[in-house]
Design a protein that fits this description.
Keywords: DNA-binding, Repressor. 67% of the residues lie in helices and 0% in strands. With 205 residues, the chain is mainly α.
């Protein structure tokens, strides 16, 4: 029987290999983290993946689509990590400390503020809405945990949304470096303890 021709630009499929789309996305994410949106072209991604540019465009029609997908995947991984930590059966304060320590360690090379700034500048309105929705889902995970702890009497009653955003804002201090590149905290563990101790004073009963 005559084989149907492949769609132009569609990559060959190997059942035993990691999906090409995943490889493209992971590679592009690493490049965006290292070089930023403007400094990475679709050709750069194709070369790094050892595939044709047509393959990249088959999965991601524009660089904005690729950048959007990279951000969505990154935020979803962060959200799932947050969820996993917050669902543990240890005291809430310890969960918060663990969340900050792990999050800071895992994202030490990721400048999320710059990622979001470049998204605002370079993405379409619909793409930006997708990114903002994913960001809101991250906050929602923490907000729901705050609400549960309020209901269980672990922390004082208050606005769970405010608590979640305040916590995330404080967590970002863990990335702070002065003009000479010196970090505010000597380690992620120290940052986690100091930040949670500060936050806890405002929510403890």
């Amino acid at each position: 029987m005559k084989q149907s021709p492949r769609v132009l630009g569609r990559p060959r499929h190997d059942e035993n290999a990691k999906p090409k789309k995943d490889i493209v996305l992971e590679t592009a994410t690493r490049l965006f983290i290292k070089e930023g949106y403007k400094n990475i072209s679709m050709d750069d991604v194709a070369k790094a993946c050892n595939v044709t540019k047509a393959t990249i465009y088959y999965y991601y029609p524009t660089k904005g689509d690729l950048y959007t997908s990279a951000l969505l995947a990154m935020m979803d991984r962060i959200r799932l990590s947050i969820l996993h930590i917050l669902e543990q059966s240890i005291v809430f304060k310890e969960r918060l400390e663990q969340l900050i320590e792990i999050h800071l360690s895992a994202t030490v090379d990721i400048d999320m503020k710059n990622f979001m700034r470049e998204a605002t500048i370079n993405l379409s309105t619909s793409q930006l809405k997708e990114v903002q929705a994913a960001e809101n889902n991250m906050y929602k995970t923490i907000e729901q945990a705050m609400q549960r702890e309020m209901e269980q009497g672990t922390i004082r009653k208050g606005n769970a949304t405010f608590f979640a955003h305040a916590f995330m804002a404080l967590m970002s201090v863990g990335y702070f470096k002065d003009g000479e590149g010196e970090r505010l905290f000597q380690s992620e563990a120290m940052a986690a303890k100091e930040i949670v101790d500060f936050f806890w004073q405002s929510v403890e009963k």
